[in-house]
Amino acid sequence: MTPDGHRRLILIRHAKSSWDDAEMPDHDRPLNPRGKRASAELGQWLASRDYLPDQVLCSTAARTQQTYAALGLEGAPEPELARALYHAEPETMLAALKAATGQVVMMLGHNPGIAAFAALLPAEPPHHADFARYPTAATLVVDFEIDSWAALEPHRGSALDFFVPSGRD
Hints:
Blueprint (H helix, E strand, L loop, with lengths): L6 E7 L19 H16 L6 E5 L2 H10 L8 E3 L7 H9 L5 E6 L3 H8 L18 E6 L13 E6 L6
Parallel strand pairs: 1-4, 2-3, 2-4
Antiparallel strand pairs: 1-5, 5-6
Helix pairs in contact: 1-2, 3-4
């Protein structure tokens, strides 16, 4: 958990999805085996650092829901599914986060919007070669010294961690 007067965001791009069925609508594409492995690795990493959400905002796409399920976080809440987060622009993600009620919020979404959103959050971006491209299953953990998400302003966060599972792109 975070101290009073703080909020934490765990921002996750979905893991690698399957392109086996070219006729399948994008929204319905599931994770491929590598995506499932990367999600499990990410879940272990999150749990090992006690980065556990009390609220989860998730795109309605199959691959984001499957990424969250494959994290295997014990005691984690059911995700709040939001169609607006499917291929959302940074402004849409910001609006969803400003309406959040949890102290530690996990948000799962898609590129290119999630990379742009991640870049808007910390005062100083993490020093990681993959941060700008935000590959599949990439995760930013950022803290804000605010009492409510409604007070969130861009470039005011403190990046705590940025993680990319080894079994991804």
